[in-house]
Amino acid sequence: MGSKRIATIVDKLEDTSLSPARKRSRFDPSLSNENCETWSFLKTTGLDGLSDIGVGPLIGDSPEDSLADTFPDFLDITQPSSLKAQAERDKKLAIVLQSTLSKETLHKLSANEWEKLLLCRPKRDVVYKLNHFQQLSDEVILHIFYWLPKRCLKVTALVCRRWYRLSQDESLWSRMDASHRHLDPGALGNILSRQAIILRLAHAKISYPPFLPGMKAYSHEFRARLLFLDLSMATIDPETLTMLFSKCRRLKKLSLEHVFVDNNVLFALSRNRELEILNLAMVEGMSQEGFQHLLTNCRKLKELNIAWTYINSQCVKYICTNLPSTIDRLNLSGCRKCLSDESVLDLVRSCPNLRELDISDCTTISCNSIDHIVRLGNLNFLALSRCYFINYRSIVLLKEIKSLMYLDIHGGHIDQSEIDIVQKNLGNQVNINKFKFSSIARPTVGPKRSTIWGLRVRD
């Protein structure tokens, strides 16, 4: 018990409304026997009969005051049985000390002097500490760990061997968001070793090499469980991408927007035969040879975005001719002079079930392309922004597409009066210039950045 505790008790006592302890003693004849007389401090006994030996009431006290005094006359200083009883005893002893010592003296008492005044040091009960987590099953602890942030899981792994083993469980790392982070060499390998399924690496800076000796992902036989991967705007070199895709065989949705690639990257990517959504917007370094491997093996594609990739006309023609028939959303905007009316015809033949088509900024296609597009009976969305050789009279022919709901013709080459004519002919069910940007194959749309393709990246 230290001096700090003494000061706390004294401060509490200064606010108490109880009066100092009365210094009176009484004699209790009921406790006497034949041989001796026993002293007592009970309030029910008066001082009659003791006047002859000099015992009497204090000056200023009356018998009525003596009977009305409810303050304890004496205190039990025996060994307390609990910490609560010890605290009560210390408080009572401090009250007695306050009545006999001045406040200055109490403040000057040291810890050792206070211990002597209390006569005995309290004996504290031995508390056996139990590890309640040791009584829980692995399933319960994993459920608790599931609600912890990923950064806290690294700390829990340092507690004990069991927690380290549980913290490495694959169910805790199925969703990961490492966007806007700098990944040191080997960091990407650690993520893949934990078998993440949904991974967001947008705007991340990934260092080479991605895998280091000793980790699971370094093994040649290792196969990642990645299904959904967002590498939009990531800083990553083609060699690291090739090593990453060589570990993947189950990718379903992938975004490489604004990432530099080469043919080796597309070769490794083509092994993911279950690929359904691919975003290659603004990707540089692609060639016809790489697309040949990609479109030959990935025949389950449903959404493809190759906007503003600056590929040549031969590559564009090859893509339009060899696209799988499963594609229902396609973005070919920004092809400039590489997309021709003949390529549009090949496109319609390859993908007859298209629901969304964006061929904005293709400046060489003419009104003849409209004659081909009207064959798409399931088309819901069509973007023809800045296609300067297509006039409003040709656009009116789109009324033959009964399923059309959205039409974008931004660019100023069609004035408002002509847009009104188009609206009148197409009907009110068609919304004109509703969207400024395409969402085809993009992982995130709008301000929300906690999901990719509608899937949460954080638990």
Automatic annotation (TrEMBL):
Residues 130-176 form the F-box domain. GO terms for biological process: SCF-dependent proteasomal ubiquitin-dependent protein catabolic process. The keyword Iron does not apply. It comes from the Eukaryota. SMART domains: FBOX, LRR_CC. One of its GO terms (cellular component) is SCF ubiquitin ligase complex. InterPro entries: F-box-like_dom_sf, F-box_dom, Leu-rich_rpt_Cys-con_subtyp, LRR_dom_sf. Keywords: Ubl conjugation pathway. The keyword Membrane does not apply. It holds the Pfam family F-box-like. This is F-box domain-containing protein. It comes from Pyrocoelia pectoralis.
